[in-house]
Amino acid sequence: MGEVVQEDGWGKSLQNHRPSADVDRPRKRGIDPSQFYRKGKSSSNTTAAERQLQHILEDATRNERAEKKRKVAGDIKQKRQLYHDATALRLFPLQDMALDFLDELLQKQKKGQTGRRQNLPPSALYSLSPRIFAIETSTSGKRKYIVGHAGRIMQSYWIDCDPGARHYYELIRPHTPCRLYFDLEFDRVSNPQISLDEAEKLMGEFIEELGAEILQAYGIRIGRSDVVDLDSTTAAKFSRHLIVHLPNGQLFASAYDAGQLARRLVGRLADETATGMLCSKGKNCLAKNLFVRAKRKGGSDQVCFVDLGVYTKHRLFRILGSHKFGKTSLAALRISETSQFKFPQRFDNSKLTSRKKSAQQSMDSPHTLDLDSFRASLDFGSHAEALALSLVVPLHSQDCEVLECGNSAASATMDSATRRTSCLASRVKSNHGSSPISSLDSYILRLSSRGGVQGKIRAWSIGPMTSNSDSHHITYHMSDNRWCERIGRMHKSNNIIWNVRIDNSDAVCYQTCHDPECRMMQFRGASKPLPDDVQSEMREYFLDREIAELNVSEIIESARGGPSLSFEDASLDAELSELDLSHIVSKGICTRVQESDRSKTIGGPSNASSKE
């Protein structure tokens, strides 16, 4: 019988080998890695019926969510439609037409004819306050004007207008209560020494000095958190807008009054910079950069970084989220990174580029929003509130305390100056067109051709320098030619002034202008001596004018033996006593009789007695 050969589980012979538990026992093959890492399957396979039921449940849930969203969208649409039915929104090509329609809306509001607020939420998005804004339509400055109730304008601005096409400006009307506001800017290319960090330090020191000015003038304290700080800085230009919220909602009476405080502030800062006081207060950055280099190639002109030209009649002020026409949306006015003002909770700079998606798009989106997120995507209330907080003119100002420039302690000096000059008002003569001194007019017109453009005399005035002075001052307000000695070119919009001064020993003229920068710097051009023939005619005119203002009754009374006139000069008194004045006195008496007491003075330089 042959030998039986035993084999192990691996096909190897076990002959001559003793069984071993550790070595000879058959080994397990283990788990295939592909099986180990394979996703587990349910213990029981789903049937077709179960899968169909699952799809039905998912569809039902999706339809229920969509129905809720449709209801939310429908409610919002209904509210907006109700609001639209009660309000107005129109576009105009001209400012005058727009202002007429605005006045019409204001009259209706005053008479209570504006639609009721029933079922409308108390939000700026549904405001019934009539407002006007300008929309820039070209790089040349051409504009159109949108007028309507504030909520309608805000809905159009945030919901319908593409972020790249937002070129909106708030129009600030005269005599309209407003918040204090500032436009701060400088050219970064012309001022490379001012880094962004330095600029932020400059902003901080300026706001501190602004707070000190308001405290001194009105006894009101403000902090950085009371200032809306908007930024549109680019690589070429530093630009910030500040809108001040006074703690109790106080407003300035008008943009003019706000400008008065701004000018007082800048004037004080300029004085303290010159005297070193600003540096002694630790405001070194502000002292160093209050005046910056203007944007001119190769120029060294100094201008204040506070723009004092933004307080004029019907001023336009760019609003949050807008940029100038021709610029990119990166230059849009946004919330400054260092702003401490509290905007609505859900609003930040990321919302400036958002725009409404249709309700259908949101409902059909594969990335389905939950109901709260969907509602928030359709609600632009926080956008409207943020814009309202950043406006110069508040939406509602009826119950606000109004501050005037005359209410402040700082205006006392201005009032005293006004009182000193008021007594001269009756002695100042003014008119339009040509003045009584034709040779002087011709000379001023020759001076007003600098820069290659012939200027015109728009208005003139003549008056004494002081109430008891022999000096006289003539002022010419010019038009057409705005060439200014300080900047060496034409001003863009502000006219110039020619001032003429004549006294017993001198007669000169010099140029000033209406430009806020020039006025703040108290600029006065070089004095130019007047030609001899001009001086001669001027002296003759003022002599005739003084003689015409003499009181005839006093002269006659003196000639009849009244109190003698003494000039405190013995030789002059002796010469005067030898003069024969009988023919002058008799002519004066005849003139007085002929006038039948209608006048007590001899008027006009053409009077015969004036020539003798």
| Distance from first to last alpha carbon | 178 Å
Q: What is the number of helices? A: 19
- Low-confidence segments, given as residue ranges, are 357-361, 410-428, 584-612
Classification by helices and strands: alpha+beta
Percentage of residues assigned to helices: 25-40%
Instruction: Give the overall shape, derived from the CA principal axes.
Output: elongated
Return Rg in Å.
41 Å
Into which percentage range does the β-strand content fall? 15-25%
Strand order of the largest sheet: 14-15-16-19-20-21
Please outline the major beta sheet.
6 strands, antiparallel
The total strand number stands at 21
Averaged pLDDT: 78
Description:
It is a single chain. The chain is α+β, with helices and mostly antiparallel strands and 612 residues long. Among the domains are: 161-402, no CATH class; 427-545, no CATH class; 550-611, no CATH class. It contains 19 helices and 21 strands. It has helices at 33-36, 48-86, 95-110, 150-160, 196-218, 255-275, 277-280, 284-289, 359-364, 371-378, 381-389, 412-422, 438-447, 516-520, 532-548, 552-559, 570-577, 582-594, 608-611; strands at 89-92, 130-136, 143-149, 168-172, 180-187, 227-231, 237-244, 251-252, 291-293, 302-304, 315-318, 334-335, 402-403, 429-431, 456-464, 472-479, 483-484, 489-490, 496-502, 507-513, 528-529. Strands 14-15-16-19-20-21 form a 6-stranded antiparallel beta sheet. Strands 1-3-2-4-11 form a 5-stranded antiparallel beta sheet. Helix 2 packs parallel to helix 10 (371-378) and helix 16 (552-559) packs across helix 18 (582-594). The longest helix has 39 residues, at 48-86.
